[in-house]
Amino acid sequence: MDGLIRQFRVAYAATNGEQLAETLNSELPTHAAKLQALWGRGDARSTTSDLNFLFNQDQARFSIRLSKDEMNGWFAIYNAYWKAVGEILAVEDLRGDAKGSWSRVYDAWKEVTLLVVRGYTNHDFENWTIPCLYVTGKYLRLYAMRADAERALSNEQTAVDDLQDDFDPQAEEHKSLEDCARHLNRIFQVCASDRAPLEESRKWGVYYAVNLLFKTYFKLHSEPLSKNILKVISAGRSDIPSIDNFPKSQQVTFKYYEGVLAFLEENYVEAEKHLQMAWLMCHKSSIRNLELILTYLVPCHLLTTHTLPSPQLLERFPRLEKLFAPLARAIKTADLKAFDIAMRDGEDEFIKRRVYLTLERGRDIVLRNLLRKVFIAGGFEEAKEGAAPMRRTRIPITEFTAAIQMSGGEIMDTDEVECIMANMIYKNLMKGYIAHERGTVVLSKSGAFPGTGV
C-alpha cells in the first residue's frame, strides 16, 4: 500500500491526471505483481490502518497539501480499490484463500466508481484528476460484461432444473451492463454539468464518458439512448471542448458511433461524412477498428456515390472480402442472380451487422447497370448527313424484359418490367419516360443513366 500511495503523491504533486489514474489500474496480467503486492495478506484492518497513517498522519511526506475533504475522499477510494483487487485476484485464482466471481468483482468495482464520482460532487476533487473517472468507468463496463457472461453460463445450467419453470434467463441477460449504463450516465452528467471555466472544467471528460456510453448502449441494443446523448452534446456544443482537442483514439470512436447512428436513421450522406473521418484518422495497424468502420462505409458509398470497394482494399480484411466481394462482382457485371445469391449467402451476417436492408438497395444499381448495357448494345441511330451519330433512345420494353429475365433467371411479364422501369426513372437512376401504348421506353438523349457517363 505504501508504494501505491507513493505513486499517488508523485502524480498529485505533478498534477498529472493520467499518472494518477494509473494508480487505479486493475488490468491483469500486466499489473498482476502490483496487485498481488497491494493485496498482501488480505488483512482489512491492517490496510485501513496503513491508509489512515499514510493519508492522515504522514503529511510531512506530501509535497502538496490536500484538504481534509479531499483526503477523506481518496482514503475511501483506495480502501474500496484494495477490496476490489482482492475480488479480482480471487476470480483469477491468484488467491489461495478464496474463490471469486465476476459478479462480486463488478459489485466491488462499482463501489470504487461510486466513490470516485462522489469525490467530484462531495469532496471537491480538482478537475485535472478526471482521467480517474474514465479509468473506473472503463473497467466497470468490462467487469459488467464478464459478470453477465458468467451469469448466462450459470443460467443455462439452472434452466435444466425442472423446478425452475418460472425462471426467465432473458430478464437477466444484461443485468450488470444495464446497471453499469446508469453509472456511466452519472459520470457523463458529472462532466457535462460542470460550470467552471472551460480551461479547468470537468467537461474535458465529456467525450471519454460519451464513448463509454456509446459502447454500452450498442451492446444493450439501446441505440435510441445514444441518440439522446448526441442531442445533449449538440445542444451544449458551444460550452463543450471541440472533439478535435481530444486524443485521436477518442475522436475515431466518437465519429464511428456518430456515423453508425446516422446510418441506422438512413441518413447516408451524414453517415458517410462521419465514417470517412473515422477511417482517415484510424491508425492503419488497427485492423479490427478499420474493419468495423468499413462495414458501414462500403454500403454508404454504394448508395451515395454508387462506388464499390476495390479488390486491393478488401484483401486486407478477409471477413469483409468474403461478404462484399461477391456483391461487388455482381454489381459490376450487372448479374441479378449472382447479386441475389450473394445476399442470400451473407444474410445472417448482414442482418447481424445491421446492413442488410441498405445493401438490398444495391439491387437497383445492378438493374441500372443491366439496363445501361441494353441501351449501349442498341447502338446508334442512322445519322443525318453531317450530324454526329446519336444513340438509339427508343427501345422496346421487350429488349429490357429479355435482359432482366436472362440476368435474374426468372420469367417476368411486360407489366412487371414496366413497373421496374418506372421505379428506376422515379429514383433518377434512368432518365426518360415509358410510352405504354407503343411498348417502348424513350430515354434521354443526354445522360440517360446519370453518373455513368452515358
Describe, in plain words, how this protein is organized in 3D.
This protein has 454 residues and is mainly α. Strands 1-3-2 form a three-stranded antiparallel beta sheet. Strand 2 and strand 3 form a beta hairpin. The protein is elongated, with a radius of gyration of 30 Å. The protein starts with a helix and ends in an 11-residue tail after the last strand. The relative contact order is 0.05. The mean pLDDT is 87.
Topology (elements, then pairings):
Elements: H1 2-13, H2 17-22, H3 32-39, H4 44-57, H5 68-91, H6 102-122, H7 131-158, H8 175-192, H9 206-219, H10 223-235, H11 248-264, H12 268-281, H13 287-304, H14 311-315, H15 318-333, H16 336-345, H17 347-352, H18 356-360, H19 362-377, E1 394-396, H20 397-408, H21 414-426, E2 432-435, E3 440-443
